[in-house]
Design a protein that fits this description.
The chain has about 160 residues and is of the alpha/beta class. Helix content is about 20%, strand content about 35%. An 8-stranded mixed sheet has the order 6-5-4-7-1-8-11-10, with helices on both faces. It has a 3-stranded antiparallel sheet with strand order 3-2-9, with no helix packed on it.
């Protein structure tokens, strides 16, 4: 099963200058809980944005076009197709960014784990593709209010692909 996990603003913005737009501790906890013990696939820029490199307790796969790229504690593949060929078909695999990988993988993903943030950032240069209601069913929604740790309202939205 191929899943996408992402936090998006109201205008589908996901990042600016290779950084996340929002710091939401509950979103980070959810990300860790969902992806731990699984394979995560990311683009080179997403890997380079991680403060400590490869994420622990996960199989880290980085996609890079360069033959010479080598990242500690990761496997490097040159395409999403090649990476998926080296994954176990019975496991849940998570796409964790960036925007070009999201655009490619949303066409074949089975599930979306979205954190929808009720805000529009002043600046963004990376965006998530539009979620087509004709292709996706909202299976679960969990709203979160502003509190001492969260400056924005947000919701966890879980989508599953419609099957014909």
């Amino acid at each position: 099963m191929l899943s996408i996990i992402v936090a998006i603003a109201q205008n589908n913005a996901i990042g600016f200058e290779n950084k996340l737009l929002y710091w939401l501790p509950d979103d980070l906890k959810r990300f860790k809980a969902l992806t731990s013990g699984h394979t995560i696939i990311m683009g080179r820029k997403t890997y380079e944005s991680l403060p400590k490199g490869a994420l622990p307790n996960r199989r880290n796969i980085v996609l890079s076009r360069k033959q010479t790229d080598n990242y500690p504690n990761t496997e490097v593949f040159h395409s999403l197709e090649k990476a998926l060929e080296h994954c176990n078909k019975d496991e849940e695999i998570f796409i964790i960014g960036g925007d070009s990988l999201y655009k490619e993988s949303i066409k074949i993903a089975d599930k979306l784990y979205i954190t929808a943030i009720e805000d529009t950032p002043r600046q963004a240069d990376a965006f998530f593709p539009t979620i087509d209601d004709n292709e996706w069913i909202l299976a679960n929604e969990e709203a979160h209010e502003i509190d001492e740790k969260h400056a924005y309202r947000f919701s966890f939205l879980d989508y599953i692909r419609k099957r014909s």
